[in-house]
């Protein structure tokens, strides 16, 4: 019996969907199987310094960073379009803000911290994933960060949220665990 290999576009599509899934629930080993050793995340400039490297370690660090701030995190895949080695994944990112969300500047220093609000959110995102040798080698995205900020109560800031965020930033600077 001759088993046919999936078409290359189906392989790229499947890998792209799996790459989104593991951000919310994947183990470190899952990242090894999905992310190329030379992979780069073009969105990591506001993330912790350890996310700015290459390969599975950096991608897994991004997942850990997101999971520290958001429980019930998931990426509901709405559409996937594949052209050659490039997949575009249209998702709805969902979660609940239960931990400090720490944003970094280009030098890797803590820039802003949003104290936990306990609120849930659902925002549209498009993730662009380039594949090489059967693994994701490049990622970049367009996200509705303002929509997320409004849903989580970060925008517009209130006097109370500004105080809470300042205390959270102070705590994060004393204990940089991300």
UniProtKB/TrEMBL annotation:
<dbReference type="Pfam" id="PF07366">
    <property type="entry name" value="SnoaL"/>
</dbReference>
<dbReference type="GO" id="GO:0030638">
    <property type="term" value="P:polyketide metabolic process"/>
</dbReference>
<dbReference type="InterPro" id="IPR009959">
    <property type="entry name" value="Cyclase_SnoaL-like"/>
</dbReference>
<dbReference type="InterPro" id="IPR032710">
    <property type="entry name" value="NTF2-like_dom_sf"/>
</dbReference>
<protein>
    <recommendedName>
        <fullName>SnoaL-like domain-containing protein</fullName>
    </recommendedName>
</protein>
